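Model: You mentioned two targets. I'll fold them one after the other.
Researcher: Yes, keep them separate.
Model: Target one:
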Amino acid sequence: MRTVVALLPLIVLAGCGPQKESLGRTRAAPPALTISTLLTGPAGEPRGTARLSQLTDGVEVTVTVQGLPPGTFGVHLHAVGKCEAPGFTTAGPHFNPGIKQHGRDNPSGAHMGDLPNVDTSGDGTGRMDFVVPGLRLADGPTPLLDTDGAAILVHAGEDDYKTDPSGNSGARIACGSFGGRAASTK
C-alpha cells in the first residue's frame, strides 16, 4: 500500500506537463490580443471584415471581402484610425515605423503596412490570411495601436509589391478603423 501512495504524487505531477492534441502536437497559446473591424465602402456599404491577432512573433491579419468585382486588390495597414468617405484619405499613409520603401519585391522594402493582395471570385468574395513578422498591436516600441489608432484599406487595383508608396494599387475603396489605445478588444 505504501508503494501506491508514494507513486500517487508522481502520477499527479505527470499530468501537469504540456497538453497535447492528437498527433502529438502541443497546443499553441491563444493570441494575446485580437481586434476586429468592419470594412465599408465609400457610401457606407458593407465590404467585409478584418481581424488582427497579436501572436508571439507578429500579428496575424485575416481579411474577408464581399461585394467587389472579380479580381485582385491591394490591402494595406494605414497609420491613422479614421475612415472618412469617400476617399478615405484620413487614414493617412501606410503604417511604416521603420521608414522603408513599399513592397516585398522592392529592394528597399518592405514596411509593416504591406500586406498581400486579396483575390475575389465571381461572387465578389475573397479572403486573405497573413502574419506580419515583428508587428505589435499594443506593446513594443512602435505599436500599431498608438494614440490615433490605425486603419486597414482595400485598394481598387492589384498591388505590384514594388512601387513606392502603395504598389500602384489605386484608389482606396474600402476602409476599416481600429481606434487608438482605448479601442475595444476581445
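Model: Target two:
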Amino acid sequence: MAMHTALVLALALLAGTAQAGRSCDTQPPKLESVTRGLELAERTARALDASGAEVVVLARAGQDLSAYGLRWSHLGFAYRLSPATAQAPGTWRVVHKLNDCGSDRAGLYRQGLGEFFLDSPHRYEAAFVPLQGQAAEQLAPLLRDNQAVQRLHQPRYSMVSYAWATRYQQSNQWLLETIALIDPGVRDRDTAQAWLKLKGFQPSRLHINAMARLGARATRANVAFDDHPNGQRFAGRIDTVGADAVLAWLQQNRFGGAPVYVR
C-alpha cells in the first residue's frame, strides 16, 4: 500500500511538469517506468550504504550509446547526507548538470536518487566509483556549497562539446572539470583542462559522419560541433567527455576505487 501511494504521488508530481534534461513532454510517465526507476534507486541506495563512501561518481544508462562503444551516458556526484542505521537507510543526494528541454542551455540540479533514475533510462542499471583520499575530502564540502559547485559551470550546452574547449559544456564535462578543483592551481575551465591533460585524461572519440553532423546541427538546439578543431571535425572525429572515460580515469589516477555495478 505504501509503495502504491508513493508511485501515485510521483506520477502526480511529474505529470505536466517540464523535466530538466528531457524533451519537456507533458505526458506523464508510465507506471512501469516509475516503478522500475524507484526500484533501481532503492538498490543503488543499498549499494551506496554498503560501500562506506561519502562521495561517489554515479553513472546511469540514459541513452543507448553502444554504437559508439560506450556503456554509460550520464554522470552525477552522489554524496551522503546521513548514514544508514538499523532503523533507517542512509540519505543520499545527487548533484548533476542537465540540459533544459533540448535547448542550448543547461543548469545544475540537486535530486534524490529516485528522481535521478526516473528519466526512462535505456537500461535500468547503474554504476558508481567511490571517491577516496584527496578527491573525497575536498569534494564533499564543495558539493554541499551552492556557490562553489557552480564555479566551473558553463550554461551554454552541447551534448558533444569538445573536451578541450570552453565554448560549451556538457554534463560529464562539468563533473570532470569540477573534480579538477581538488588542485589549488585550478582557477577556471582553462586551468582545469590543463590539469586534466597532465593527469592523462583521454576523451571518448565518437565517429560521426558529415551527414549526421549536419542533420543533428540543423534539427537539435543542444548539438553543436563548431568548438571542435576543423581537422578533426571534418574527418568525423569528435572528442568529447564520455562517462566510461571518466570512470576509467578515476581508477587510473587512484581518485576512486573499483566501479560498483547495480543491476
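Researcher: Noted. Anything on target two?
Model: DSSP finds nine helices and eight strands in the chain.
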